């Protein structure tokens, strides 16, 4: 077993499963540079744990992350809480078929409604219903509390540092998927 590691801030941190995996690979293949494995492995394993914790909260509201993502995307737009499906697809990183399935579920639950698009006779606009708005606000409160609990082992400074470290990686990956540069909302 590896010895406890020390972080940049000199706080003692216990070893994790990735340390063991990297140690095994280093023993078996000492010729390999394992630095990328350490980083990507921790991101992947952390993401799995976070997804599991998020799912527990969403399930209390009979939602999953995908359904919440649609509701939250609409809520963030402000009054009248609506978007065309093509823009929702971009926010939620979905195909139109996958989005249609989510919209059908949310519509059956009374959380969204489809309206004719006044600018395009063939198009529709997706809008939060009053029940959808109320539900989204309740869920986002619980979601943010859950995220705070998930990150509670990190100081506020460490949380900001981690967010800043991950930004260029996410920008690079999203740019490959989506093309043009995103700008902050004003």
Quick overview:
The chain has helices spanning 17-28, 35-59, 65-75, 85-92, 96-108, 130-150, 156-178; strands spanning 5-6, 12-13, 82-83, 112-117, 120-128. It is mainly alpha-helical.
Describe this entry's structure for a reader:
- This protein is mainly alpha-helical and about 190 residues long.
- Helices cover about 60% and strands about 10% of the residues.
- The chain contains 7 helices and 5 strands; from the N terminus they run E-E-H-H-H-E-H-H-E-E-H-H.
- A 3-stranded antiparallel beta sheet has the order 3-5-4. It has a two-stranded antiparallel sheet with strand order 1-2.
- Strand 1 and strand 2 form a beta hairpin.
- The protein is elongated, with a radius of gyration of 21 Å.
- The chain starts with a strand and ends in an 8-residue tail after the last helix.
List keywords for this structure.
3-stranded antiparallel sheet, 7 helices, two-stranded antiparallel sheet, 186 residues
